[in-house]
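Question: what's this shape?

___
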Amino acid sequence: MVRITGGFTLVIGLGLVLSFAFAGVPPTTSGKGLLLVANKGDHTLGIIDPDAGRQIAAVAEPGITGHEVIASPDGRTAYVPIYGNSGVGKPGTDGQTLAVFDIASQKLTHTIDFGWPARPHCAHFGPQNGMLYISTELNDSITVFDPKTQRLVGSVPTGQTESHMFALTKDGKRAYTANVGAGTVSVIDLEAKKVLAVIPISKETQRISLSVDDKYAFTADQTAPKLAVIDTATNKIKTWVDLPGSAYGTAPTLDGRWLVVAMIGPSKVGVVDLQTMKLARTIDVPKAPQEVLIRPDNSVAYVSCDSSGKIAVINLKTWKVDKLIDAGHGADGLAWAAKNKFIGALF
């Protein structure tokens, strides 16, 4: 393992990448991609073959513990911010590193040290500039990491405390952060590095997603069973969606028709009709559903279920659970790693 700290940059040559590829690691059996999961309880990055429906690797993290994961656009690298051993706003350790994994070799390659206690949590790649944006909760900010230079290159204030999760617009110009304890959503101009608006939601709000056309942002009120629907043109709440239980993670289907909602309290998944902004149906899943990921072909929704260590695979045509995949303890953050043609061709 190579550790990169304050100001030093590591350049890994092609030879090392090739040595990973030829090190006897078995090829993936999925022809389209891999599902990644942050197993909080095990302190591992889980690598799942979604077609076979099984976890093919659990790679140890270099600290306690990662809650979220993101894959590089080329599908080669996974990044796991190491948050700490507690929940948002609660006492515990304060993580300050970003773990970097080579997906093909199923190995940790190095860590990036932020240089300060940060509780890094949610991570997204900028769709246009290739930068990796990471929420750094203790600093009320989103930190910017350049994967090419392996350097932290900037910071964008959120203007609120406990900025836990965020979503990016398709052009990468704006971020919407769910500020848990503050009970607000911040609207941020990433280029100007300034807060455009702060939207009150409730005493506490969790998770956030954007509709596929970026017209709406969705966040879950934690004091009542309902979702706030924010009109991004006005940055005001447009309406509320009543639910049968407290919601958590959400994700829109890629056709823009439905919003898939993890309801952590009743252990159900809700499906919201985005034309009527009403709940259309519910689906039973294992205990404590957390995060929702829509597969890039829009065929299924993956829902991580924390307490059971399982991932529910929901068919988006039949709205039934096709199968349950065994992940690790405390299965939480999900990401999709696209099939990498270069690495795949070596096996």
